[in-house]
Amino acid sequence: MGKSVAIIGNGLFPKKEYPLYLLSQADYIICCDGAFNSYMRYSASYRNGRLPDMIVGDMDSLSPASQKKYQDIIVRYSEQETNDQTKAFNYAIDHFKDISDIFFLASTGKREDHTIGNISLLMEYARERDLQSMGINIQMVSDFATIFPVTDSTEIECGQGRKISIITPDNSLKIHSEGLKWPLDNVVFDNWWKATLNRATEDTVKLEFSHKSIAIIILD
Length: 220
Known about the structure:
By secondary structure, the protein is of the alpha/beta class. The chain has six helices and 13 strands. It has helices spanning 17-25, 36-46, 64-69, 84-95, 112-129, 131-134; strands at residues 3-8, 28-32, 54-57, 74-76, 99-105, 137-141, 146-150, 154-157, 163-167, 175-178, 198-199, 204-209, 215-219. β3, α3 and β4 (74-76) form a beta-alpha-beta unit. The longest helix has 18 residues, at 112-129. It is elongated and about 55 Å long.
């Protein structure tokens, strides 16, 4: 089994047991620069002051004093074509060769535009990096949801009764579903809400894509 990476964003820092457990068990921790202070407050209380393995970003949110103090673990990217979450993700993929799981924590909340952008990027990561062939799973976990991308037909072991939403930007995609209260067979994905707020009627939800595409699954 491979190792795990926790990437800490500058959204709402988690308080609930599951995301904090993922953070406590992470083999590697990367902070986006704006998240460093929030992480260090957590670390001082729960991790005996453990530093992140890397601080990644353009450093516009990190004080000059902190930049000097922690210069040995700072990876600075000056380009503005990608956000800090993407910079941290790319660093993890390119430098940690023994990983099997990447968990994005504190990536949502505070700002709706950042939340939408960060969630949508999961689909880009899965497609551009072909994570399935690399054997790497990615999830965005908050106090409220677990979110992950899919690029083809899949089976989701989510448990009967669990709330589930499916979002895709591909309006040509058709999805045959099994195990959902409201089947997706006739859904036209021409807006984000079209397959949200569903519920699993079986322990396993099956989704059959008409073609390879991108989508995200949101579980409560």
